[in-house]
């Protein structure tokens, strides 16, 4: 993430919010919906986007890692109760 140019936005309650630029050597990890599934909805996967800046260049590197698409996964057992069954 470039320290001088913002670009990341998150959606909350119908409004897009800018995420402030970070300092050099910042690693931002977005676990997405994987954490939402594993926690049975306790943690919500962030809806996010990256926007361009017409006045300044920005350098960002996006890397993706995915789970094996052939394997099924779900909530961890400790997150399930009678009041909070599997969603």
Automatic annotation (TrEMBL):
Alphabetical keyword list: Iron, Metal-binding
One Gene Ontology MF term: metal ion binding
Entry superkingdom: Eukaryota
Pfam families: 2OG-FeII_Oxy
Signal peptide boundaries: none
Domain Isopenicillin N synthase-like Fe(2+) 2OG dioxygenase: residue ranges: 3-65
Keyword Iron: yes
Protein name: Isopenicillin N synthase-like Fe(2+) 2OG dioxygenase domain-containing protein
Upper classification of the organism: Eukaryota, Viridiplantae, Streptophyta, Embryophyta, Tracheophyta
């Amino acid at each position: 993430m470039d320290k001088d140019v913002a670009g990341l936005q998150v959606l909350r309650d119908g409004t897009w919010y800018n995420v402030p630029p970070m300092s050099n050597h910042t690693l931002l990890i977005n676990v997405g919906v994987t954490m939402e599934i594993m926690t049975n909805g306790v943690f919500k996967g962030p809806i996010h986007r990256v926007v361009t800046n017409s006045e300044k260049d920005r350098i960002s590197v996006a890397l993706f890692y995915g789970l094996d698409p052939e394997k099924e996964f779900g909530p961890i057992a400790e997150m399930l109760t009678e009041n909070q069954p599997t969603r």
